[in-house]
Amino acid sequence: MTESDGLLTACAVPPPPGSEADLFPIRVRGLKNAFGPHVVHENLDLDVRRGEILGVVGGSGTGKSVLMRAIIGLQIPEEGTIEVLGSPITDARDDDDIDIRCRWGILFQGGALFSTLTVAENVEVPLREFYPEITDELRHEIARYKVLLSGLPAEATSKYPSELSGGMRKRAGLARALALDPELLFLDEPTAGLDPIGAAGFDQLIRSLQQTLGLTVFLITHDLDTLYEICDRVAVLADKRVIAVGTIPELIATDHPWIKSYFNGPRGRAAMAAAERNGALGTSGDQA
Ligand SMILES: Nc1ncnc2c1ncn2[C@@H]1O[C@H](COP(=O)(O)OP(=O)(O)OP(=O)(O)O)[C@@H](O)[C@H]1O
């Protein structure tokens, strides 16, 4: 998006090439999150590598969304540190204090679109917030480009969220997440509620955008097909921490009971058979 490149330089100050922050755009150490006596995370560590799609899985209530919220500064941890693109998120007083918010895009569950705004107006919200000085014409053009990039037809720009299917709403949410040309993309259950064909199409869209735009993707999902098809590595949340990170074959080789039952259950086996047919299984990773 050449028109916006110059504008975004003001916001995005990349870490030095080869630095830790460059190699690992998200680094979490010793994280503790709790709601009163309910401890969700304790001593949680995680490194996300630049340019990977990291799938984040775990049973319901293990704290996948809370982890994402902590990384983007919406949940203040009781202990630990979080660095995103070299910036210490845990030192921020509130999310307005985080100067790298313009370098990530977020697709929340359900899209979280403003119902009274059209798709294009939704995409324009972050542009207005971070770049109030750009002209209306350029803002409209950037929004239209992001809508098309997300696989929606041009007509969708003037539609309201209530006029879209669930799959189209996800794509509109993705268009808004891409509005500022982010380096990091956070996706919370992006294929939840989509039919299998729509979900597969969304997976391929994410993979193709990640490759074309060089994104690093933090992807929470329960969708085994998504894990097999597009994730480079998978982080497993259990016992209040990340118990393992690796490719799926590496995770299957571990002996944690939850991991074994997750990947070796009937759905896991079906997803693996489909991935083997497509040649989608990866090779490298490590155990936490
Ligand atoms: N604002 C909050 N106040 C109190 N407890 C909360 C709050 N947000 C999350 N929790 C609790 O934290 C735990 C983790 O929630 P979280 O939504 O992160 O789980 P999850 O792994 O994303 O679950 P799911 O897969 O079902 O979406 C849950 O027990 C939840 O009830």
Brief description of this entry?
With 288 residues, this protein is of the alpha/beta class. It contains 11 helices and 10 strands. Pfam families: ABC_tran.
Describe the fold and architecture.
- Pfam families: ABC_tran (PF00005).
- GO terms for molecular function: ATP binding; ATP hydrolysis activity.
- Keywords: ATP-binding, Nucleotide-binding, Transport.
- Residues 26-264 form the ABC transporter domain.
- There is one protein chain.
- Residues 1-10 and 283-288 have low confidence and may be disordered.
- The longest helix is centred in the last third of the chain and has 18 residues, at 196-213.
- By secondary structure, the protein is α/β, with parallel strands linked by helices.
- It contains eleven helices and ten strands.
- The termini are far apart.
- 43% of the residues are buried.
- The chain has a six-stranded mixed sheet with strand order 6-7-8-3-9-10, with helices on both faces. The chain has a four-stranded antiparallel sheet with strand order 2-1-4-5, with helices on one face.
- It binds adenosine-5'-triphosphate.
- Adenosine-5'-triphosphate binds next to helix 3.
